[in-house]
Design goal:
With 199 residues, the chain is mainly α. It has a single domain, classed as Jann2411-like fold, CATH 1.10.3300.10. The chain has eight helices and six strands; from the N terminus they run H-E-E-H-H-E-H-H-E-H-H-E-E-H. The protein has a two-stranded antiparallel ribbon. Helix 5 crosses helix 6. The longest helix is centred in the middle third of the chain and has 24 residues. The protein is globular. The protein binds zinc ion (ZN). Zinc ion binds next to loops.
Length: 199
């Protein structure tokens, strides 16, 4: 059994909501697409890695992975709603009403299922010590609705992941320069060589 290495690259999204959406890889090519959460043990492992890689968004926090099959399915449904909402918003410069509504309904259910009396604070001012991974994704996603943040969401031209470009002049071209930037460079090199040899 090979475990996923939940390393910094897999948290290139820059916000928990986007990192969650990026747990399906090769979304642009359905025949190649792979769901990193097809084994629910990986959700646990993602949740604990997210606490450290998303510390800049959340501070010190523990994300609790769903403990039941229905909780797992709800998280996947939320993940797909987040992906649709933001991916289409980037491509079409605005939310689709249906996607927005789907997200808000799931968000309402997730937040409503929290313990009575729990406070709810959006990052970056979150002071939660522990919250469900779904609640974290919802709050992170709500935070991205702000136009100043929304306009910084991009789609990586190599791997099609969603990521938040927080660079000052919005110049980030890849989800991860070290991975996708280098792959694109290698590809350009290969094509140039190919052209020289009449391929
Ligand atoms: Zn990429």
């Amino acid at each position: 059994m090979m475990w996923i290495d939940w390393n910094a690259h897999r948290f290139s999204g820059g916000a928990l909501a986007l990192d969650l959406a990026n747990t399906v890889i090769f979304r642009q090519a359905p025949e190649r697409a792979q769901d990193r959460f097809s084994n629910s043990v990986e959700v646990e492992r993602f949740a604990s890695a997210a606490a450290s890689f998303r510390a800049s968004e959340w501070g010190s926090v523990t994300f609790i992975a769903p403990q039941s099959q229905s909780g797992h399915l709800n998280l996947l449904e939320l993940r797909e709603a987040i992906n649709r909402l933001f991916r289409v918003a980037v491509l079409e410069e605005g939310f689709k009403a249906q996607h927005f509504s789907d997200f808000l309904q799931l968000a309402s259910t997730v937040i409503g299922s929290g313990k009575n009396g729990d406070g709810v604070i959006l990052p970056p001012f979150a002071r939660h010590r522990a919250l469900s991974l779904s609640a974290g994704a919802v709050l992170s996603g709500l935070n991205l609705l702000d136009p100043s943040r929304l306009s910084r969401i991009k789609i990586c031209p190599n791997c099609h992941w969603l990521y938040l470009d927080e660079s000052r002049n919005r110049s980030r071209r890849w989800c991860d320069m070290a991975v996708c930037g280098n792959r694109a460079k290698a590809k350009r090199h290969y094509h140039r060589k190919g052209a020289e040899h009449g391929l």
